[in-house]
Amino acid sequence: MVTVHAEDYYYLTIVETDGTKTSLTAVGLSLAFSGDKLTASNAYTDESKTIALSHLASMNFSNNDETTGIRSIQTDGTISIDDADAIYTLQGQKMPAGATPQKGMYLVRKGNVTQKLQVR
User: Quick check: 70 pLDDT over 70?
Assistant: First the structure.
């Protein structure tokens, strides 16, 4: 077992072969390898990322969130505003619990799933 201390950094950024970057909070982060997959998960923030090792270009510690955006949106199970654990504006601001979003685009999170949602 290898233990890494990243006390001087806020994020671990995972870079995929297509250039997509996902940053996860470093404090509380654990990495697990299973078969051909890597799973990075954070017990404190519920952040999680699973990636095939063949899609992993690099990982680095950083003090900046380098997440590049949404690579894909799943259409098999849409999260509704009422069911969401958290709602964010496209600028990344978390909306207060119970707030009613105005017309526009939002990111909604339920568990480990995040989707883009349009309010009309």
Answer: no
* Percent of residues, the chain, with pLDDT higher than 90: 18
| Distance in angstroms (rounded) separating the CA atoms of residues 9 and 29 | 12
Coil, strand or helix: which one is 89?
strand
Q: How far is CA 35 from CA 4, 22, 39, 70, in A?
A: 21, 21, 11, 26
Run of H or E residues at 30:
strand 29-34
Position 95 pLDDT exceeds 70:
yes
Which token pair is 106? 């939002």
Phi and psi based region of residue 101 (left: phi greater than 0; alpha: psi -120 to 50; beta: remaining): beta
Rg over CA atoms, the chain: 16
Residues 30-56 have pLDDT tens digits of 999 999 999 998 888 788 889 999 999
CB contact at 8 A, 17 and 52: no
Residues 8 and 11: their CA atoms lie apart, in Å, by 10
